[in-house]
Amino acid sequence: MLGAQTWDWHRELAGSWYVTAHAETSDRLPFVTLTEYGVPAKIGVNAAGVAVLLNILGHKADGEGEGVPVHALCRRVLDTAADLDEALEIVRSARVSASSCPTVLEPEGAAALEVSPAGVVSRPPEAGFVVHTNHFTDERLAEGEERGRAEPDTYDRYRLLPERVSAVTNPSDRDALVDVLDAHPASGAGVCCHPPAGAVLGERWQTLATVVIDPNDRVMWVHRGGRCTARPTGWQRFSPPAMR
């Protein structure tokens, strides 16, 4: 099973991210992660074959009281979870301070975890795939939806992606899977994101990186930019340090 995503953020922060590797310690697994300066982890894969993809969400309960930052939760999964069940246990055990959707993969399974101060809901694969964008799909959590109301294009992406995914006949075909992400407004939704002309500071959203992860081989491929700019030689390959 493979995982793929675009990572969209402000164009001005295009130089603020990097990929880093962490070696094992007595109680931690080695892993690699794509993250930002000052952020403990985001997207990545560990030596046990547990991988994390990440979509930001927004809920009206965000910021109400104390909680664990979701990036610390991603770090905990990457450096300690040996399988999907352990990852789910870690995520469900923590009260978070804001909402996100970490999608956790292992060689034989995956789940999208809608995480919010209002609760955690796990979505298993349907027809062999898990698709998620930037809004809650769980009916109860969707009652507190914030981000989707402010940025309704997430619903357009969510309608488009299953159509494109359904054309992928082999879930292990890396090129076919990443081609799903090469979609722009003319296709029905902007999965590969480019800021519109005249966009002001704070609204210049751009796909800063495109990522494909193979948990079976413990490999993460990263392209700096959107899928539409990726060429065969434009991908960097990263793996966790070898376990001692």
CATH architecture: 4-Layer Sandwich
Taken together, the total number of domains comes to 1
Low-confidence stretches: none
The CATH first-level class comes to Alpha Beta
Strand proportion:
25-35%
CATH third-tier fold name: Penicillin V Acylase, Chain A
**How many strands appear in the DSSP assignment?**
11
Shape: globular
Structural class, please? alpha+beta
Largest sheet: 7 strands, antiparallel
Helix coverage percent: 10-25%
Report on the structure:
- There is one protein chain.
- The chain is α+β, with helices and mostly antiparallel strands.
- It has a single domain, classed as 4-Layer Sandwich (Penicillin V Acylase, Chain A).
- The protein has 6 helices and 11 strands.
- The radius of gyration is 17 Å and the shape is globular.
- 41% of the residues are buried.
Secondary-structure blueprint:
Blueprint: E1 3-10, E2 17-22, E3 31-36, E4 43-46, E5 51-56, H1 70-80, H2 84-93, E6 100-106, E7 109-116, E8 119-123, H3 139-142, H4 147-150, H5 153-165, H6 174-179, E9 205-214, E10 219-224, E11 236-238
Helix pairs in contact: 1-2
Write a concise keyword list for the protein shown above:
single chain, Penicillin V Acylase, Chain A, 28% strand, 4-stranded antiparallel beta sheet, 7-stranded antiparallel beta sheet, 244 residues, alpha+beta, 20% helix
